[in-house]
Specification:
With 306 residues, this protein is an all-alpha fold. The protein has one domain: Triphosphoribosyl-dephospho-CoA protein (Orthogonal Bundle), CATH 1.10.4200. The protein is built from 14 helices and 2 strands; from the N terminus they run ββαααααααααααααα. Strands 1-2 form a two-stranded antiparallel sheet. Strand 1 and strand 2 form a beta hairpin. Helix 2 packs across helix 14. The radius of gyration is 20 Å and the shape is globular.
């Protein structure tokens, strides 16, 4: 069940006065926050952000072809998911994107640790709904982490009156991500120990700095119908994707980066389809790169052009 609405006025006094909500042991001045948001002329409220996050996830999914990822044509190297599975996952997690926004907006004055704690609770609820919708398939775990951090940070900065740009967002994301512990016995933990590749959590702790600056700048410079695909190829060429390391090992993961670099620099759509078939045969999943594609697409929708 989505947590949208968890910030409604619970335990409020019956006789007027300031309305406050409590959740996870934290008191939130809901009415005060909403009034302040309105006074400051907020034009992207958390519900609008939820729509934009869903749009970004669907755009990432619809990018076709995508070597090592599910797209409209193939399931890539995946035997447990396809395009329909991904659609169901997006529908399941999208409502929680609103709650990430509420978390940042209503808890802006709390500590990084407190905000991170609530944000992680929202993330766990999103993943529970995703697993229910997909029959237990992990389709968007990294995307939920990335977009959840981005949206929470975005509204926390807004509430504090800080200018929202790539630099301030990256710093805020990094601060919130420090409170996230790596799951024991997870794929990411195994890759980090085996290959010293920090994966999704490492990228988060760095604030997704490279993707919110260089990646966003590149996407806005690219032109043509395949600009999302070209951005994805660039991300693949630069990111040490823990999904690829886990499924195929270090040699093939690095080989995938080399191929992606060539495809980006010498772009040809049929060559990309050939690479897609090769990645499928080698069981190369580029899930981390897909997560960063969705993140950059959301940033493009929500950050002003400089």
């Amino acid at each position: 069940m989505p947590l949208v609405g968890i910030f409604c006025c619970e335990n409020r006094p019956k006789s007027g006065g300031l309305q406050k909500a409590t959740k996870y042991g934290i008191i939130m001045d809901t009415i005060g926050v909403i009034r302040a948001y309105a006074r400051k002329g907020g034009n992207v409220n958390p519900f609008d952000m939820g729509v934009l996050a869903k749009k970004a996830m669907l755009a990432a999914l619809d990018t076709t072809p995508k070597p090592g990822l599910v797209d409209r044509e193939t399931a890539g190297p995946h035997t447990d998911m396809d395009y329909s599975t991904m659609q169901k996952a997006i529908e399941a997690v999208a409502p929680h994107m609103v709650t990430f926004g509420q978390t940042g907006l209503f808890l802006a004055d709390k500590t990084d640790e407190q905000v991170s704690h609530v944000m992680q609770e929202v993330g766990r609820a999103a993943l529970a709904d995703m697993y229910q919708a997909t029959g237990g398939v992990n389709a968007l775990k990294g995307t939920v982490l990335a977009l959840g951090l981005y949206i929470t940070a975005y509204y926390r900065l807004y509430r504090k009156g800080v200018e929202i740009d790539s630099t301030s967002l990256s710093a805020q994301i990094s601060a919130l991500a420090q409170g996230i512990e790596r799951e024991r016995d997870s794929h990411g933990a195994w890759v980090a120990e085996s290959y010293q590749v920090e994966g999704a959590l490492g990228e988060a702790r760095c604030g997704y700095a490279r993707w919110l600056t260089e990646g966003l700048w590149l996407y806005r410079k690219l032109e043509g119908e395949h600009r999302r695909l070209r951005l994805l190829l660039y991300i693949m060429s630069q990111l040490k994707d823990s999904c690829a390391y886990y499924r195929a090992g270090a040699e093939l993961a690095e080989n995938a980066r080399t191929i992606a670099k060539y495809l980006y620099e010498h772009f040809d759509i049929e060559d990309v389809r050939t690479a897609d078939r090769y990645f499928e045969r080698c069981h190369l999943s580029m899930g981390g790169s897909g997560d960063m594609l969705a993140l950059v697409l959301l940033a493009d929708l929500t950050l002003q052009r400089e």
